[in-house]
Amino acid sequence: xxxxxxxxxxxxxxxxxxxxxxxxxxxxxxxxxxxxxxxxxxxxxxxxxxxxxxxxxxxxxxxxxxxx
Length: 68
Fold this sequence. Notes:
Structural class: mainly alpha
């Protein structure tokens, strides 16, 4: 394929088609999701989650997971 004569949007479409063909639908979507920027403020949300749990609670949950 001669990309020198293609517009950028054509190259993008050809690349997406190749990924879809090679990875299948599920793999293609998973690949695209790796580049999702998301939204919100993760650091602020994480602080809220951690404030609700004591260190003892966290250790207890880890031990329970290991025993499963």
